[in-house]
């Protein structure tokens, strides 16, 4: 009876702690939310409890399989939209929730609870603080130009961008609706000191 009670307590705590992190992701309208985080935590806890209950089983080996396996689940929440990658934080939270579940399954309740506290702080207050800090990443923008279809026109544009230290990441050229003109789409990487208004003016 004592073993059964221990099992229930560990799984229930894994459920609650996983749900706490999942609620934060749900409130942020992320693909992996309340139910996903809860299931990952409970499943990881069950694997750890089983590894301790099966004679001859290596708890560390089964736990490692959970940590590596949840990576595939996290990869499903990562989306690439042009130069922007979304879902990395949610993938990381799934990985942390799996670790929390393993800790609950092993009976390491203090570590699991404190990790949840830190995870909620990282996902909530720290994300708001991050938005207040100045960005150190170059900005990517797409501009559309219509140029005369003459030799060297695009080269002049590239020289102007070069003077501003703006990098060209992609160029798409098509015939414009007007005869002898080209429609050009430039994907640019702007330094922190250069705005898109400066680029257009140049």
Could you please describe the fold and organization of this structure?
The chain is of the alpha+beta class and 202 residues long. The protein is built from 8 helices and 5 strands, in the order αααββαααβαββα. The protein has helices spanning 2-27, 34-53, 59-75, 88-105, 109-123, 125-132, 153-163, 196-201; strands at residues 79-81, 84-86, 139-148, 167-175, 181-190. The strands form 2 sheets. A 3-stranded antiparallel beta sheet has the order 3-5-4, with helices on one face. β1 (79-81) and β2 form a beta hairpin. The model has no long low-confidence stretch (mean pLDDT 82).
Strand order of the largest sheet: 3-5-4
Helix-strand makeup class: alpha+beta
Overall shape: it is elongated
Low-confidence sequence ranges: none
Q: How large, in whole angstroms, is the Cα Rg?
A: 26 Å
Q: What's the total helix number? A: 8
Distance between the termini: 78 Å
What is the β-strand count? 5
**What is the succession of H and E elements?**
HHHEEHHHEHEEH
- Main sheet summary: 3 strands, antiparallel
Helix proportion: 55-70%
Percent strand: 15-25%
- Average pLDDT, to the nearest integer? 82
Keywords:
5 strands; three-stranded antiparallel β-sheet; two-stranded antiparallel sheet
How does the SSE layout of this entry go?
Blueprint: H1 2-27, H2 34-53, H3 59-75, E1 79-81, E2 84-86, H4 88-105, H5 109-123, H6 125-132, E3 139-148, H7 153-163, E4 167-175, E5 181-190, H8 196-201
Antiparallel strand pairs: 1-2, 3-5, 4-5
Provide a short characterization of the protein structure.
With 202 residues, the protein is an alpha+beta fold. The protein has 8 helices and 5 strands, in the order αααββαααβαββα. It has a 3-stranded antiparallel β-sheet, with helices on one face.
């Amino acid at each position: 009876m004592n073993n059964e009670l221990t099992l229930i307590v560990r799984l229930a705590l894994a459920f609650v702690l996983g749900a706490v992190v999942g609620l934060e992701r749900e409130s942020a309208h992320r693909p992996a939310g309340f139910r996903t985080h809860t299931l990952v935590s409970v499943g990881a806890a069950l694997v750890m409890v089983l590894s301790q209950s099966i004679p001859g089983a290596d708890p560390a080996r089964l736990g490692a399989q959970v940590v590596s396996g949840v990576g595939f689940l996290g990869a499903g929440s990562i989306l690439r939209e042009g130069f922007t990658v979304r879902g990395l934080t949610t993938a990381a939270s799934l990985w942390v929730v799996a670790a929390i579940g393993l800790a609950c399954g092993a009976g390491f309740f203090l570590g699991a609870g404190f990790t949840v506290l830190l995870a909620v702080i990282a996902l909530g207050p720290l994300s708001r603080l991050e938005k207040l800090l100045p960005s150190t990443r170059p900005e990517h923008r797409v501009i559309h130009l219509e140029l005369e279809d003459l030799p060297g026109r695009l080269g002049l544009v590239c020289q102007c961008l070069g003077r501003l230290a703006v990098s060209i990441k992609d160029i798409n050229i098509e015939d414009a609706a007007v005869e002898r003109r080209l429609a050009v789409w430039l994907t640019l990487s702007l330094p922190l000191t250069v705005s898109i208004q400066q680029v257009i003016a140049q």
